[in-house]
Amino acid sequence: MILPQALRPGDEVRVVSPASPLTPEKVQRGVELLESEGYRVTYGNHVFAADGYLAGNDQERAADLMEAFTDPNVKGIICSRGGYGCARLFPYLDLDVMAASGKMFGGFSDLTTLHLPLNRRGLVTLHCPMLITLSVEREPWVEESFRAILKGENPIPETAFKGETFVGGSADGVLTGGCMCLLGDSLATPDPLDAAGKLLSNEDVDENPHRVDAMFTQMLNAGVLQSAAGIIIGEMTGTDDRLDEKIGAWPWRKIVEDRLASITVPTIINFPFGHMKNMLSLPLGVKARLDADQGTLEILDPICAASQ
Questions:
Q1: Cα–chain-centroid distance for residue 166?
Q2: Catalytic residues
Q3: Mind listing the pLDDT tens digit for each residue in 138-161?
Q4: Model-level pTM?
Q5: Domain 12-137 classification at class level
Q6: What's the Cα-to-Cα distance from 146 to each of 21, 112, 133, 136, 262, rounded to whole Å?
Q7: Is CB count within 10 Å lower at the N or C end of the chain?
Q8: Annotation: CATH topology of 164-299
Q9: Terminal CA-to-CA distance of the chain, rounded, Å?
Q10: 260, 86, 56, 58: which is closest to 165 by C-alpha?
């Protein structure tokens, strides 16, 4: 396991845009939050570039990412937003070099595509708000969790919302997962999702009900859900707004009940992470304990190495 160094005041945090574009206004509040902790914020060369639904072309976005991971002055890397595009970068990335750097790397949504291969190479990464996420006011514990994880502290405040029991019990395992459509996309690639004996987290946003059904069904057919030690489901945000009465539809919670009816490992739903209005920052690649009866997650391993 490769632990990133905890950030301390004066450290350089590089903002990169490996997926979709955004405007400078969308990062301002998040930058102010980072600067309030004493971090020095810098930007990749193409952070605000736009090429259709991408933040610049593939080579430009990959170059910014590789430069951030190889620059000895950069201590942490935070993504500006998700959207789409990370999978297109693989031909231009050296994932071994990125993981070996031990750099702190944070983001979610499309960044799931990068978390998986970096975790497989041993680097602990952060499933945490991005700068666009922080542009919207949220519960105070969201920022509290984010600030804590950057310092290597416990990122799960007592005030945070808890999950709801689906299957009771408790389980320990390495925390993995992220955005469900990207988890499915990883299967049959060189760095597929490996949930065996682990705590599998998943959530998604703006998917139609039948697509949520399809993603859970794919996970079942691939044996992924059955292999996990425990399952943590966030929210299928916006799915219930996409009910299509012309073809019939179930609310997303009904889909979960149907598709996970055969699952017997400890499982919770509505756990606050990912695209929900309020979300925790979570370390991926470390051991955690799921208490499905209480709807809680406890991080058991260190998140970061001490700063030097």
A1: 22
A2: 109, 203, 275
A3: 999 999 999 999 999 999 999 999
A4: 0.96
A5: alpha beta
A6: 23, 17, 11, 14, 35
A7: C
A8: Glucose Oxidase; domain 1 (3.50.30)
A9: 18
A10: 260
